[in-house]
Amino acid sequence: MRDYAIALGSSDLYPNARGYYLNIPRPVRVLEGEPDANDVALMVRFPSECSAVNFWYDDFYQTEIKPLRLNPSAGDYVVTLYTETDLPSYMADKVGDNAYASE
């Protein structure tokens, strides 16, 4: 997994897709349940579904980087896309909006 993280971090894939991590994948605290010691959850923000799909199916990612976490196996993965929710009105002026700046 180390080689995968290094290869991904040194590539231009995330900058080119304008994606970035939203969290550190290990929990700060478990509030309910008993997760497996190896369970992680990593969220990446992309400006659009198209950008995320382009990242995922990028030839370099699929042929050079992704195999680094498959052999040897770094575990089971579920990769899904979610729509980001709008900022609730009670948070107005408390945090920035969830929009990317225009280019």
Strand content: under 5%
- Whole-number radius of gyration? 16 Å
SSE series: HHEEHHH
Derived from helix and strand composition plus strand pairing, the structural class reads mainly alpha
Number of helices: 5
What is the arithmetic mean of pLDDT? 91
Instruction: Flag low-confidence runs.
Output: none
What spatial form do the alpha-carbon principal axes imply?
flat
Strand order in the largest sheet: 1-2
Helix content: 25-40%
Distance between the termini: 34 Å
Overall number of strands: 2
Largest sheet: 2 strands, antiparallel
Structure description:
This protein is mainly alpha-helical. It has a domain at 2-26 and 39-84. The protein has helices spanning 2-10, 13-17, 49-56, 59-65, 67-70, and strands at 20-21, 44-45. The chain has a two-stranded antiparallel sheet. The longest helix is centred in the N-terminal third of the chain and has 9 residues, at 2-10. The radius of gyration is 16 Å and the shape is flat. The termini are far apart. The mean pLDDT is 91.
Summarize the structure.
The protein has 103 residues and is mostly helical. It is 32% helix and 4% strand.
Features:
103 residues, mainly alpha, flat
Give the secondary structure arrangement, pairings included:
Blueprint: H1 2-10, H2 13-17, E1 20-21, E2 44-45, H3 49-56, H4 59-65, H5 67-70
